[in-house]
Amino acid sequence: MVQIFKNIFKSEKSFFFMAPALAWQISFCFLPLLFVIQLSFCTELFQFVTLEYFAEVFKLSHFLVIFRSMLLATVTAISCLLVAYPVAYYVALCAPDRMRSTLMFLAVLPFLTNLLVQVYAWFFILEKHGVINNFLYFVGLDVGHLLNSQFSMYLVMFHVYLPFMIMPLYSTLEKINVRWIEASLDLGASYFQTICRVVLPLSIQGVKTGFFLVYVTSFGEYAIPSLIAGQKNYFVGNLIAEYFFIGKDWHVGAAFTCLSSCVFIVSIRGYQLLLNKLVDRLQRV
Amino acid sequence: MNISKSALPIFVSCVYLFLYAPIFVLVLYSFNKGGFPDAWQGFSLHWYSDLFHSEEIWRAFHNSIIVASVSSLLSVSMSVMFIHGLRRYQRDLIGIFYSNALIPDIVLAVGMLSIFSYCMIPLGLTTLIAGHTLLGLGFAMPIIKGRYDELDKSLIEASFDLGASMRYTFFHVIVPFLYPALLVAFLLSIIISFDDFLISFFCSGSSVQTLSLYIFSMIRSGISPVVNALSTIMLIGSCLLLLIMMTFQRNLFKD
After folding, report:
1. How many angstroms separate the CA atoms of B250 and B246, rounded?
2. B107, B115, B195: residue with CB nearest A114
3. Rounded to whole angstroms, how far apart are CA atoms A191 and A159?
4. Which of B11, B19, B123, B139 to probe by mutation at the A interface, max A CB count within 10 Å?
5. Which residue of A18, A111, A261 is the best one to mutate when testing the B interface, meaning the one whose CB has the most B CBs within 10 A?
6. Banded pLDDT at B68 (limits 50, 70, 90)
7. What does the alpha-carbon distance between residue A240 and residue A225 come to, in Å, rounded to a whole number?
8. CATH number of B45-254
9. pTM of the model
10. Which residues of B touch A28 (CB under 8 A)?
11. Contact between chains at A105 and B246 (C-beta distance less than 8 A)
């Protein structure tokens, strides 16, 4: 009896330890999310359910915005993956030991520098009187505006998110034993086959983590499109911010947030299935 | 392995060059004597002296420091307590904190903004700290959890058997063991808080400015080499923090 009482007391004590973090998580993450859903359905707090806000965002132009964000996120994630994989492969498996930590340091540093600092660096280069334009002018070319173009935006997105991809890829590739690759090559597999059937399957977890990390963070990107691409190209982040700051139409803004989140979740599920299928296909090369 | 011998190192160095070229130009021009549209005119530190005399930047820096240190301290201490309390439960409840990193920032920011304004909480430093602590929890939890799992649980029992109270055990056995992980988590949360833009943008209101918001507004209004100088100093700051983190991370994996 005393034992049971003690146990209860102890478990209550451990609940006391967990309470602050749980309370924080609930009140600043789960409640706000619930509140956004509520805002999009109800005219008053949890009352008078209506679909009029959703009717307002169920337009082709809004779906186009979501589609553009998905495209941006997909292109960023895939281009980062294609470039980051060889880099991570080299750093983890081929680079000389004494250089490895330096290379890794250089790959992580941009991840930990302020996003705005990197955007500013690009702004500085791409500006009308920036470095590239000055150089081109010096050579005798005049291309005019480099800013406010889709291309510059994709370039900056690629630059900013590349370290996000290198890190998870590196941490899985690092665990691969180089002997396995050598064994595969010795046993007559071509270089391409070794990559597809040995290295890729062993590092698929890193590929998934990196892909979704970049996809998730770049889907809601706000600063880069609004600073580099100018105001005319709308993405999900910019449109939500406009509803909440300029239009002050919070109900419609919340409805759009919910709608884009739903599409976003469906797209993530789709990419998961697609990635799994791709791995299956690769195994048979 | 022919490819890796020749083409791969060249490709990798190109990628690193691409990663660092803009930053290099940025740093270089912070030492330029001339103003922005001019080309290189000679070495000078006068943008740095402008930076240190700008009251607005000092205020933003001050705010950033307060928010970063308070929110990191909060998120690390809450994470330790949560993980310590979790040991009695079979369920891995830690998964709920991963949502902070999985939900796009903009959704979190919108949610927080709407609930703050519904509850009539004035936007300012407090709301910023609340948001950044939430972000920090998502990053601190996995790091501390990893170290906590390595802790030999019989140490805790031994401490109890020898007559130590729960509190004594927590502060004299568990916290010292976790110390390297706590430091790494703390520094990472500081960096996350300094880097964050979206949550600050939504939750800060009009009165409070952080360094990220300051740079954002400066890019909007046009380029000034003062921002180059500020960026250079922030880069050096992240460099130092990362160096400290890597030293401790190495110790973390060693034992």
Report:
1. 6
2. B195
3. 29
4. B19
5. A18
6. very high
7. 13
8. 1.10.3720.10
9. 0.86
10. 112, 130-131, 133-134
11. yes
Which SS3 state, helix, strand or coil, does residue B43 take? strand
Q: Does B15 touch chain A (CB under 8 A)?
A: yes
Which site among A117, A165, A179, A198 would you substitute to test the B interface, given the most B Cβ atoms closer than 10 Å to its Cβ?
A117
Report which secondary-structure segment, H or E, holds A42.
Answer: strand A42-44
Interfacial B residues in 47-86 facing A (CB < 8 Å): 74, 78-79, 81-82, 84-86
Contact A164, B101 (CB under 8 A): no
Residues 233-252 of B with CB under 8 A from A: 234-235, 238-239, 241-243, 246
Domain, as residue range, for A41: 1-50
Yes or no, beta carbons of A32 and B115 under 8 Å apart:
yes
Q: What is the per-residue pLDDT for A175? A: 87
pLDDT tens column, B218-230: 888 877 888 888 9
Residue B127 near residue B113, CB atoms below 8 Å = no
- Calpha distance B42→B158 (Å, rounded): 67
Residue for token pair 């977890």:
A205
What would the two tokens of residue A204 be? 């698929």
Same domain membership, residue A58 and residue A46: no
**CB < 8 Å from A in window 112-171 of B:** 112-115, 118, 130-131, 133-134, 137, 166
Question: Domain total for chain A?
Answer: 2
Q: Residue A74: give its domain's CATH number.
A: 1.10.3720.10
Looking at the structure, tell me whether residues A202 and A251 fall in a common domain: yes
**A165 and A214, same domain (yes or no):** yes
- Quick one: A63 and A202 in the same domain? yes
**Residue B34 at interface with chain A, using a CB cutoff of 8 Å:** no
Residues A163 and A265 in one domain: yes
Please indicate, yes or no, whether residues A32 and A107 belong to a single structural domain of this protein.
Answer: no
Contacts of B29 in chain A (CB under 8 A): 124
The interface predicted TM-score of the complex, written ipTM, equals: 0.84
* A149 Ramachandran zone, left/alpha/beta (phi>0; psi -120 to 50): beta
> pLDDT 10s digit of each residue in chain A, 285 long?
556 555 544 555 677 778 888 888 888 889 989 988 888 888 777 777 777 788 887 888 888 989 999 999 999 999 999 999 999 999 888 888 888 888 888 888 888 888 888 888 888 788 766 667 667 666 666 666 666 778 888 999 999 999 999 988 998 998 888 888 888 888 888 888 888 888 888 888 899 989 998 999 888 888 888 888 776 668 888 888 888 888 778 888 899 999 999 999 999 999 999 988 888 887 776
Domain residue spans of chain B? 45-254
Half-sphere exposure of residue B160: CA atoms within 13 angstroms, side-chain side: 7
Closest partner residue to A21 among B26, B103, B137, by Cβ?
Answer: B137
User: Closest approach of chain A CAs to the CA of B180, in angstroms?
Assistant: 19
Token representation of residue B191: 């960096």
pLDDT digits (tens, 9 = 90+) for A123-139: 878 876 666 766 766 66
Same domain, residue pair A165 and A67 = yes
Statement to judge: residues A150 and A179 lie in one domain: yes
